[in-house]
Amino acid sequence: MDDILKQVPFLRKKFYDYPVYADASINELLSPDQLASAKKLKANIFETIYLENTGNGFKVKHLPIEAQYAPVYSMLSVDVNEDGFKDLILFGNNKLTGFV
Questions:
Q1: Residue 3: what are its φ and ψ, rounded to 5°?
Q2: Phi/psi at 26 (nearest 5 deg)?
Q3: At 38, is the secondary structure helix, strand, or coil?
Q4: Are 1 and 18 in contact (CB under 8 A)?
Q5: Using CB atoms within 10 A as the burial measure, which of 5, 12, 23, 45 is most buried?
């Protein structure tokens, strides 16, 4: 609910708490015109992954189970321990706004 209300603020009047939102169907979120003109996407992977750019396309890299425990909002690839290999740092804090 929090994410959609950030994107579509006028829904705050209709969805004022989590139980009301949890019981809503897509037809209650969008008008028939909005639903008809909405771009429909299909999700195939419901886990936290990263995509490796191979130069000839992207390769799906599945992350360990520990990365699936909570939402990941940002990733950083950097050689933290200076071993010559990049490490993947995951961030899940909603308050993270960027790097300095």
A1: -65, -45
A2: -60, -30
A3: coil
A4: yes
A5: 5
In three-state secondary structure terms, 53 is: strand
Alpha-carbon span 58 to 51, nearest angstrom: 6
Q: Are strands 58-62 and 74-78 parallel, antiparallel or unpaired?
A: unpaired
CB-CB contact of 91 with 77 (8 Å): no
CA dist 15 and 12 (Å) reads 5
Tokens standing for residue 18: 């989590």
Residues 71 and 52 sit within 8 Å (Cβ to Cβ):
no
Tokens of 26: 């897509």
At 7-56, the pLDDT tens digits run: 888 888 888 889 989 999 989 888 899 899 989 999 999 999 989 999 99
Q: What is the pLDDT of residues 52-78, one digit of tens each?
A: 999 999 999 999 998 898 888 888 989
